[in-house]
Every structure is written in C-alpha cells, then in structure tokens.
Amino acid sequence: MSEKYAIIVAGGSGSRMKSEMPKQFLLLGGIPILVRTLQTFLSIENLQVILVLPQDSITYWQNIKGDYFTENHKIITVMGGNTRFQSVRNGLNSISDQEGLVAVHDGVRPFISKEIIENSFLIADQKGSAVVAVDSKDSVRLLENEKNRAVDRNTVKLIQTPQTFDLSLLKKAFLTNEKPFFTDDASVVEYFGHEIFLVEGDYRNIKITTPEDILIGETFLRM
Hints:
Helix content is 32%, strand content 26%. It has 223 residues and is of the alpha/beta class.
C-alpha cells in the first residue's frame, strides 16, 4: 500500500461546550479528547500524523503532549486556518509527497476504531475515496423554501470521519477556491468531479461538541 498520512483537524473552540477550554482538550475519562483520538491513529503502523491546531492552542499542546506521547510518536503540528477548509489545506501543504493516501479526521471523534481507519485506507487505495458513514436511525425531512417533505431514510447517510482519499486527488481538489457548501472533505472532492465511495462507520464514532456528548462518551468508556 502507498504512503499513509492522517490529518487530524482540531480547530474547535469551547463555545457550544460552554467551556473556556477548547473542546479538544477537555478531559474524557481523565484524558484529553484529542489525545484519545491521536492514540488510535498512532496505533497504525507506518502512518504519519499531522495535527492541525489554532495558533493560540499550539503552545498549550506543546506543554502537555509530553505527558502522553514520547518523541518516538511521529506527530507534526501545523497551524490551522480560519475555516476547516483552510485548516485541511494547511495540513495538505505540509505533506511534501505527491503520491500516497491521506485520511482527514475530526480531533473530537475519539471513539473511532483502528479497524475502520484501516478499512478506509484499503478502500481509498482501490477507489480513490472512502468516506465513513452510517444509516440514519431517525425519520428525515427535506426543507424546500418554506415547506418540507418526507424523505425515505434508507436513501440518507450520516457522514462521519475519517474521510480518506488518494493524496494527489485531495491536493488537486483543495486547489479550488473555498465555497460555502464545503462542509467536509467529501464535498470538496465531489465538486472537483471525483465520485465519493462510502464505507461503514460506527454509531459510537460521535463528534463531541456539546456537554451531552461528554456524558455519552463517559458512558462508552464505562462500557
């Protein structure tokens, strides 16, 4: 398999968490959420991890990372941008290689499994893209102007991360100008003209954003 990279985007604030501490550094079972995420990615052999952080979080990270990781852990720290798109592009620009595979993952999804990450690399190696998704458990309605209508939930997927791509493909896709509808990496690659392939995710792979998510995460740890 090609050279493998993972860009971990951790640019969130604590606003929705109602915390002064950025949410990626909040403790989950006594360990920062971001550290739990990184530990899983670092368990994969021959994977270069690139951590994208806001400028005002880099010093804090440098001060605490030694409590959890040794110098043998290969983590490159890159300064993020004003948006997720800009942060991912900064991460991509730190990769000198033009060929390989790259997974982009939210730093506040600490329950991602090693198996899902490895499967995403496998599928991306074959098809160029592999985006983790799960079925919708809820009924879904589509908003159109001021009206709404029911949609068959079997035709809807809930998108997670990692979103894994051929490195050359993702680099080319991110050369485009940022658009307001770029909500994730798949939307950028799709706009570039490449088909998106979905791979099975996990309902436990939650994005920790609000205080309720911390409670859910603590429950997962106890399980």
